[in-house]
């Protein structure tokens, strides 16, 4: 007897057959005595189809009207899923973002959630209905349709779970949980039963595509227990919570994440003076280019090297932006490298343990892998290496930190 | 300087290219100084695609959820059309049925319009915007999405025109107006500049597919001048109004309509007693079979023949329903004929003129066409004939009543 919010992504509802399977699963959960709210995405391919229609008319579509068009994708899914539930004798009712008063600000195509009215949903649950809500979409104070941006359905589910004070928010996807590393790279990778919000945030932002970052932040902020499950297989999945085990025997490292879609830009011989970092990165961020790692070392002779990474697809834009403003950095030399990879160790355990970094560096050195950049946070160490070593580094670190072993 | 409501059907917005053409036309109307509200249907094929998705899950889809699914069709069109207008520098804003508060009752899939809030639209028009509204859909008092049934976009447009007291409601379609008869059958058929609501109603209900009947009723009730125009070509189209010309020289007959999709059922030797008509038709209408013409002649020997017509697709259902209840009609003989056609003369002029019927019967007789059934109303005479004569009858009557001549 619990209140569960389940979210099914586009692949899970990608065909009539899959929608039937989702209905089967939801009906079973309901029959077991739970209150169930389901959040769904558009059928896979649908959002792309709608986007193509829009861009074929207007290459940069008007944001308000784009939201009107895109939000139809989830609306179709909620109706179809309700039909599949009702056919099974499971009372169900659908809500669009507007109908459930999923209130957001007015930033079309990437709106922020402000408030969710829960009265209608609670009334339906009390009447024994499964409630099916369109993910990804909301409504602003003037009644305009808004969307939360790609992947926003995860955030919709978590926000609904928070508003309803649900016992758990389950994200059903095409993987059966969060792994210690990418199983396609590290065959020994192990599914984690549990991971903290902070760790998951680092994993997510480092390229583990299981969950959308905003949804993890949201779940952490409102302390919504989040579970990642396979929508195709049975299993416990991975639970993401605050329950930090204080046992010192816990694993130091929860997982290893790798990211290949970055490129690195280095400005050599930059004047080592106040404001130079801003002078370099200001114009870059003005062009809406997101910067990830930033490394600046102590300078000598009044000059220093300044390195940062950007998304690989933004490299050309960033380079020409810098070339144009070369005087900013005192005619320094600008070089770039787009065959890099970032490998990161993540774990709340590393807070209380020294030696993780040195073990990491030694492991990579033993394999002959040169480290180009290092960046650390409280629960993460990231290194940038030559892209060709990414699988090797991943496997070596997985072994070195014994991630294939279930911690005692 | 007028307030014009334009409605574009599915074919007119059936592709990105056609949506661009519609935008062109709307922008021109706006630039000429008019206030313009546009009502659009789903892109052609889209409603069928959505219906197939729904019925593949639930052969008789849940009506509330079906409306949720189907209403997305028009929602995509309004967004795309607004983009095409905005691209042309023509300010535009889209509204779904819910957003414009197109209030209906809760009869899902065939809701009736109750009230339309016009404040938002008026504010947008005052701001110089073209307003684009999703046809076919509304919202009930509880915020549930409803649809008006197939072809409901015409009705949406007329209702909006009535609410806004528009100067004209223009229905843009794939024909360039209302004709004296079907031009594919009668090459001499002539486009009418003007026709009355009543005549149009009879024409529409008799199979002239230019306009949906409900929209004509609505336009008549609220006296909304309605104009049928081609969305592909220029032209004045046909204006439908109350302006009845009292000139006695006016045309007696406005048009000829033919309908082929009916079948006739005859019960011979029915007891000529009170209540027998109800006993026969009661069970038929209980099965939701619509009955069109009903003819019963004076009986002899306490027995009579009872004939009625139903949609051809309902014939088998109606026949087996009657066979099961054969005792109702005193074991009379039941026969049916599904190769019939109904040909009708329509015209407000016939009210004040005798002799129309006899001229019609003589014309058919001269061509050797036997009349099987006759039914009349104030402004219409319908006859049922063998289907194979339908084109011949149509052309002969068109000639006999001089419909190819513009009236003086």
What structural class do you assign from the helix and strand content of chain A? alpha/beta
CATH class of the largest domain in chain A: Alpha Beta
- The overall strand count of chain A is 20
What general outline of chain A do the C-alpha atoms trace? globular
Question: What's the rounded overall pLDDT mean of chain A?
Answer: 89
User: What spatial order of strands do you see in the largest sheet of chain A?
Assistant: 3-6-2-1-9-11-12-10
Enumerate how many helices of chain A there are, as a single number.
12
Give the largest interface: A-B, 37 and 37 residues
Which spans of chain A have pLDDT < 50 for at least 5 consecutive residues?
Answer: none
Largest sheet: number of strands, sense, barrel closure of chain A: 8 strands, mixed
**Distance between the ends of chain A:** 31 Å
CATH-level-2 architecture of the largest domain in chain A: 3-Layer(aba) Sandwich
Radius of gyration of chain A: 23 Å
Keywords:
homodimer, 408 residues, alpha/beta, Carbamate kinase, VC0802-like, eight-stranded mixed β-sheet, four-stranded antiparallel β-sheet, 20 strands
Note down, in words, how this protein is organized.
2 copies of one chain form a homodimer. The first copy, chain A, is 33% helix and 26% strand. Chain A has 408 residues and is of the alpha/beta class. In chain A, the strands form 5 sheets. An 8-stranded mixed beta sheet of chain A has the order 3-6-2-1-9-11-12-10, with helices on both faces. In chain A, strands 13-18-20-19 form a 4-stranded antiparallel beta sheet. In chain A, strands 15-16-14-17 form a 4-stranded antiparallel beta sheet, with helices on one face. In chain A, helix 1 links the parallel strand 1 and strand 2 (35-40). The longest helix of chain A has 16 residues, at 16-31. The two termini of chain A are 31 Å apart. Chain A has 2 domains: 3-174, 3-Layer(aba) Sandwich (Carbamate kinase), CATH 3.40.1160; 245-408, VC0802-like (2-Layer Sandwich). Chain A binds chain B through residues 16, 19-20, 50, 53-54, 56-58, 61-62, 64-69, 71-72, 75-76, 78-80, 82-84, 86-87, 93-94, 96, 98-99, 143-145, and chain B through 16, 19-20, 50, 53-54, 56-58, 61-62, 64-69, 71-72, 75-76, 78-80, 82-84, 86-87, 93-94, 96, 98-99, 143-145.
